[in-house]
Amino acid sequence: MKKQIFLFFLINLIILELVGFFLPLSAGLHLGLMLAVAVCATLIFTFFVWRFSKKLALIQKKVHQINVANDDTHLILPNDDPLHGLTHELNQLQSHIKHQSHRTLRQENELETLVKHLPIGVMVIDRYGQVQVANDVIQELFQHEFDPIPHAYQQDIVQPELLTMVNAAMQRQKSGQRLITFDTPQNRKNIRVQVLYSEIRPKHFQVTVLLTDVSDLVAMSKMQSDFVANASHELKTPITAISGFSETLLEQPTDEKTREKFLTIIKQESDKLVKLIDDILSLSRLRDDQPGDLKLQQIHLADFVSDQLDDHQASAQLKSVKLENNVPADLIVTSDEGRLMGILYNLLANAIKYNDDGGHVTVAATSTFAGWQLSVSDNGIGIPTNQQQRIFERFYRGDNGKTIPGTGLGLAIVAEQAAQLSGSINVTSELGVGTTIKIDFPNDN
C-alpha cells in the first residue's frame, strides 16, 4: 500500500516537472498546478486509506464474530490484495477454532453422559473447594439435591469420615480409600470411598470423590461366611455321631439290643448327612441352571397338589396335622413340573414341621390378571417379624432351629426355584397364629 502511494506521488511530480519544462508557466500558474496535483493526490490517498480501513473493519468484525458468535462464513479477498494473506490465515484459524469447539463440546457431552449414567457416585471439587460436578447417584446416597451452581463441598459432605478424607486431599494432596457406613432413616449402607487428588498443571488441581454402594457385596460376603460356618456345623454333627458310635461298636463288646440301637442311630445320622449333601448339591445345580433349561408344560394344578399332599401324609399323621387342597379343579397352569414339585415339597415339609400337633396346612391357588398365585398356609408357631426376611438364606434357622430338626436349606431351594420361574415370594406370619407363603408366577414364566 505504501509502495503504491509513493509511486503515485513520484509519477505526479515527474509529470509536473515535464509540463513545466515543455510549457513555460508563470510562477503563479505553476504554483496553482502544483496545488491541484497535491489535492488530487490527497483525494486519491484518502480513497486508498478508506478502502484499506474498510477492509480492516471487515477483518476486525470477523475476528469479533469468531470470538463471540458461531459464524461459518469466510472473508474472501482477491489474490493480489495486500490483505489476502491475512484473511486467508484468519479463515484457517476460524475453521480450526470451529473444529476444536465442536470436538470440545462433543467430549463434554460424552463426559456428562458418562458421569450421569455411572452406577457409582461422582463428585469433582476444584482447587478452590467448589463442587463442579455431582451426578445423580451421589445425590441419592447423600439423600439431598445439590445446588446446581458451584459451591463449597462442606455444604454437601457431612459424614465425618468422608469429610476428613476430602480435607486431607485438599490440604495435604493425599489420596485415600476406605469402607465407611452411611446411616439413613431407612437402612444402613456400606460405601466404598475413593478420594483421588490429581494435579492438572502446576498449582492447579482437583479432587475426585467416588462412592460405590457395596452393601449387597458385604451382605453376600457375610452370607458366604455364615454358609461355610453353618455347613461345617451341620456336617460335623452327623459325622461326629457316626464316628463315635462306630468306634464304640468296634472297641467295646455290646449286646445285640445295644448294637441295634447304635446302628439305628448311625443309619439316622447317615440319612441326615445324605439329605444335607443332596440339598447342597440341589442348590448348586439350581445356581448353574440357565433359563433355557426349563421344561415348561401344562399342569392340572389340583391333581398335582393332591399328589404332593399324598407324599406328606405320613409325616402329617405323626403330628395329627390335617392337609387341605383348596386349588380350583379347573385351574391349569404352565410351569416346570420338577421345579414346581421342589417348591411345593419344601413348603409343605416346613408347614408340617413347624406346626403344632393337631394343626392344619392349606394349599390354595388362584388365577390373577398377570399370571397365577400359589399359597401354602399353616396355623403353626409362626415366624418373628425380624426373621421373616432371612428365612430364605442358606442354612438360616430361626429360634426353633435347635429343637426342630432340619438342614436350613429347604426355603433357600424354594427361593432359587421360584426365581427361575420368575416368581415373587411374599411372607406373612404372626407368632402363635401361623404363616402364609405366597408365590406369584407370571403367565410367560
Tell me about this structure:
With 445 residues, the chain is α+β, with helices and mostly antiparallel strands. It has four domains: 2-99, no CATH class; 119-213, PAS domain (Beta-Lactamase), CATH 3.30.450; 218-288, Orthogonal Bundle (Helix Hairpins); 291-442, Histidine kinase-like ATPase, C-terminal domain (Heat Shock Protein 90, 2-Layer Sandwich). The protein is 52% helix and 21% strand. It has helices at residues 2-22, 27-68, 84-117, 136-142, 160-172, 215-251, 256-288, 301-311, 313-318, 337-353, 410-420; strands spanning 121-126, 130-134, 151-152, 176-183, 188-201, 204-213, 296-300, 322-326, 332-336, 360-367, 371-378, 424-430, 434-442. The relative contact order is 0.05. The model has no long low-confidence stretch (mean pLDDT 78).
Order of helices and strands: HHHEEHEHEEEHHEHHEEHEEHEE
Q: What's the N-to-C terminus distance? A: 87 Å
Structural class label: alpha+beta
Mean pLDDT: 78
Here the CATH topology of the largest domain equals Heat Shock Protein 90
Which of globular, elongated, flat, extended, rod-shaped describes the shape? elongated
CATH class descriptor of the largest domain = Alpha Beta
User: What is the CATH-assigned architecture of the largest domain?
Assistant: 2-Layer Sandwich
Please tell me how large the radius of gyration is: 45 Å
Overall structural domain count: 4
Say which CATH homologous superfamily of the largest domain is assigned.
Histidine kinase-like ATPase, C-terminal domain
**Strand coverage percent:** 15-25%
Count of helical stretches: 11
Given as residue ranges, the uncertain stretches (5+ residues, pLDDT < 50) are: none
